[in-house]
Structures are given as C-alpha cells and as structure tokens.
## 1
Amino acid sequence: PFVTSGLAACTASACIHPIDLAKVRLQLFAVSNPPGTPVPNFVQLLRSMVAKDGIKSIYAGLSASLTRQCTYGTARMGIHRSISDYLQKRNGGNNISFGEKAAAGLIGGALAVCIGTPFDVTLVRMQADTMKPEGERLNYKGVSDALRRVAQEEGFGALYKGLAPNIGRGMAMNVGMMACSDQAKEMMIAITKDDPKNPGMFTRMGAAASGGFFAAFLSLPFDLLKSRMQNARSTGAGLSETALNVLRKEGPLAFWTGFGAYYTRCAPHAMIILLTLDEFKKLYSFAFKA
C-alpha cells in the first residue's frame, strides 16, 4: 500500500499545486497586507500571479510539495490502509466499523505528520516567499536549499514549527478523506449494488467527493493555524496563542478562510488519489504478480 499510495499522492499534488498555492496565499493574506485590504478570491489571485510573474509562479514550491508527498502522503495513506486491512482480516474479511476506520485514520495521520512536517514547513516558506516584494524575497533554490537555510538561520526546531496544528490537520484530513470516503463507498455500494471489489466509477467518484468535503471542513482550521505558525520567522507564538490572535482580530469564521480554494483543492485531490490509486494497484500487481 505504501508504494501505490506515494505514486497516487504525488500525481494528485502535481495536478492541484496551483490551487494549493492560492490557498496558502489566502491564509497568509491578512498578515501580509495592511488591514482593510480587499481579499481576492483564488481565481483572481492566480490570474494576478500569472500576469505579474508568469505561469511559472503558480508552481512555486512544487519540489517541496512532491518531496512532502513522498514522505507524508505515502505514510499517511499507507499506514491507514495497512491498519484497516489488518482490522478487516481480523473481522473475518467483513467491513469494519466507522470507529475503526477513524482510528486507523487518526493513527496514520499523526505518525505521517511527524515524518513530513519539515517538508511542509519548506513548502509554506517557498510558497509564501513569492508574496514578498522582490527585494525581500529569500529566493530558495529548491527544497534541499530551503531545508538547509531554515535549519541554519533559525535552528533545527524551526523545521517542526506548527507541529501541533499539523498533527491535528493530518488526523482530521485522514479521517475525512480516508475513513469518510471508505464509509461513503460502502453506503453507495449498498444502493448501487456494485461489486465491492470493483465498484463503478459513479460510486468511486461519489465516495471521493464526500471524503474531500469532510477532509476540507474538519482540517481547514488546523491548516490555517499551521500556515500562520510555519510562516512566522521570529515569533514564538504557540498553537493556543495563534488561535486566540486569529479569533480576536479576524473572528471565528477566519478559521475557514479560503474554504472555497481549500475545498476545490481537497475534492480533486481526493478524487485523483483514490482513482489513480486503483490504477497504480493494478499496475503494481501486474508488474510484481502480487
């Protein structure tokens, strides 16, 4: 499950990277611009970036994104699937409960975040760097350069900034994307009468869209706090202080800032992962006769 999960995660991230970049920019907009500055939607944001810096600008941080998926994405889905398969085997091959699916998602998400957080920090830094005036940009050359410079200039601990909200995000994301999509697939199969081992495209896409929505709704508050903490170079504000600052200055709805862009990212991301995952499994089985 790890090899196919990693391939599917990298494929999906390469496809939706511009949307992910817009999401990060929207989350950091309030702290990067004077108060009262109108907040653009993600389409306007991407259009202005292309007009100002060219098409290459919307792929800033792609190397960090792919490296992150090779670690975090691979572990997150691989651990979840391994635990789920083990629990299903112990259950005599029958479907496991949603609680067990959620537990597998929570464990997989938490462990994966501990592995992938340094790459997540570099991804946010590389994406946020493009928002700064040219004279203030750090101009990271790539993911390895960003990792080295952050560790040298700010200390090794800076690579784990935002670990607490990132763990919360990873757990929420896995429960929403993996556990909820698995549960939705079972519910749709009961209606469509598809073969559980080879469900139809309608069932698979419906389950993926459902997982994408719940993943976005549950994880976005943690994702916003993570982005704010990881982008901060000097402040040592913790999770609770960052959350209180957002609540006091921007209001409770600010925790779902950029939900349109975030959902537009999560739903296609989930669909691409789950659809390509099945195809990569077939290729892997054919290649290795597994």
Note: Residues 181 and 207 are 5 Å apart (CA to CA).
## 2
Amino acid sequence: VSVLYCLHLSMSLEAVSPKKQREVNEMTGKPFQIQKSGDSVIDTFRQRMLERSANGGFNGLRRLLRLMDDNSDNKLTPQELADGCKLFHLDYSTADIEKLFKFLDRDRNGYVSLTEFIRGLRPEMSMRRKNLVLKAYGLLDVNGDNTVTMDELKELYDATQHPQVIAGKKTVDEIIIEFAATWDKDGDGIVTQCEFMDYYADIGANIDNDDYFELMMRNAWHMSGGEGACRNTSCLRVLVTYKDGRSQVVEVKDDIRLNRKDDDAIIKKLEEQGIENIKKIETHA
C-alpha cells in the first residue's frame, strides 16, 4: 500500500488535543545546527525536531516520537507522521509527507521505528565513532580486501560448540550465516564495510555519549586502549611470573582471536607485546 494511499484514507487531520499541545509548547525550541541534506522538507523537519528535543539527545527524541505515536506502539504510520507535523506547526502537503516518510522508513516496512526516527534526525556518526567501527571491521576482514566472507567469520567465531550444532539440528555454516545476518542485510554472504558501518550507525543512534560508545566497541571487539571511562575491560588479564621471581598482572592486548585455554598461545601473544622472560602464567589469578 503506497504512502499516498494511506494518507488519502484520512487527510482530514483531527484537532490536536489541548494536553498534547501543552507538551509540545513546553519543549522549548533552541537553535540547533544540522547537516543539511539539500531538501527543504527534510531539513526543516529535522531542524524543528532537534530544536524541540532541546539538545538532540536520545530521551528528547524519544519523547517527540511518543507525542506523534497516537496508538503507543513505538512506531509511526504515515498518518501519525502527518498528524505530528501538524502538531509541530509544519504545513506539509501530501507529497511532502510521502517524501519525508520515505526518508525516515529506511527498511521500507511501512512504519518508522524509534531507531529510524532518531537516525533520520541526528547527524552522521562522528569521526571518532567511525574510526572505532572501522577498526572493529578490520578485525573481521582478515585479508584486508574490504569485504568479510563467511570463511573469515569462521576464523573469528567457532560455531562447532553451538548447542544446536552439538544437537545436530543445524550445521556450522547455518549458524555462521545466522551470525552474519546481523550485518549482512542483503543476504549475499558478504559483509561489506558499508553494511557494518550502517549497523553501528543504528546502534549509535540510541547512544548519546561518545565515551560510552567507545567503551561498548572496545569491549565488544576486545580492542585494547582507551582512557578513563573508555578503557577496555574485556581483554584477558593474566598473572605473569617472570624468571627472576617477580610477578604482575598483564593485559593480553587485542585478544579477540586468542584461544584463552591455550597457555602457549597466550605466552606467544604476550611476547609479541614485548613481555619477556616469562616463566609461567595464571589465567585465573
């Protein structure tokens, strides 16, 4: 069903309730700079929404969607978007609403989810976030050709111990395909850099704080580094006893491909980090 058809079902917009209008009026509009798309309908909508959300934060944008969401199902229909534009004093035509809805409804399922709403309003990911996502992608992309195949995912994700594989209900390849589907939106068996970036743009749309986003990425992908609250906490720490009797806890850096049960592999990884004269390690100190 086309957006135009849905709108034609009910183009006589109902009057805004006094309570809802008071809520809108309480959301003080403040100047907010947006990255312009070049389309006046989209840019005006984004500008108005971001100003009304006070600072473009997740909670403010979620409140905006709830004000538009008449049936409280956390998503917008074309009609709800049209009513919402009226609520915020945006005088859009049917064609304008159709254009705006197509812009927001990225998966073309006929609804605008909270994530799609926020993605459509917020600016692109900061370079700080993009660099973290690209670094994580590099961990998947073993041969550096800017594509990640199912074979490369197998090297990272050992599906042989998956309960459904052990039970004989699914094959290793089937589990890997399910794992990859998180990023491989077109289902061609290859995770592109663009698909991976797009996935984390959706995740990041719900995260206001860059420091929290960095911590999430570092811990999820076992990327060492970070300062203060952003510092990685997921990489393996081991108690190293040196040949001279000293001992200290050492981080095994960037350990996502490391077999944590293989002491020889851990020691080799530590030596690559410049840790020398190791007598033994303890992984459960």
Note: The radius of gyration is 25 Å.
